[in-house]
Amino acid sequence: MVANLTSSEYVLPLADPGATLEVVGGKGASLARMLAAGLPVPDGFHLTTAAYRRFVAENELQPVIGAALEEVDPGRPSTLEEAAERIRRAFMGARIPDDIAGAIVGTYGDLAGANPAVAVRSSATAEDLSGASFAGQQETFLNVHGTTEVLEAVKRCWASLWTARAIGYRARQGIGAGGIALAVVVQRLVLAEAAGVLFTANPVNGNRDQAQISAAWGLGDAVVGGRVTPDNYVVDRGDGRVIGRQVADKDVMTVATDGETQDRPVAHNLRQGPALRDADLAELVRLGTEIEALFGMPMDIEWALADGRFAILQARPITGLPEAALPAPEDWELPDPKARYMRTSTVDLMPDPLSPLFATMGIAAYNETLQQMMADVTGGRRKAFEEELVMPIQHYAYMRVGYSARFWWMLLARLAPRIPGLIRQGPRHFRDVALPEYRQKVAALDRGPVGTLLAREIWEDVQALMRAATYHLSILQVDTLGASAGSEGLFTALYNKYLWREGDPPASAFLMGHDTTPIRAEKSLYDLAQWAREQPTLRDYVLYARPAEIAAALAGHESPTGVATAAWAEWARRVDAHLAAFGHILYDLDIVQPVPAEDPTPALEAVRMYMRGEGANPHERQERLERRRVQATRELLARARGLRGWAVRKALGWAQSMAEVREDSIASIGLAYPRLRALLKELGRRMVAAGAIAEPTDVFWLEQAEIEERLGALEAGEPLDAMHAIIAMRKRMRRAAAGLMPPTQLPPSDTYMGIPIQTFVPGEGGQEGGRLKGIGASPGKVTGVACVLRGPEDFDRMRQGGILVAKQTTPAWTPLFAMASAVVTDIGGPLSHGSIVAREYGIPAVLGTGVATRVIDTGRTITVDGDAGQVILSSKG
Question: Cys-Cys link to 35, which of 41, 203, 396, 772 (CB 3.0-4.6 A)?
Answer without folding.
Answer: 41
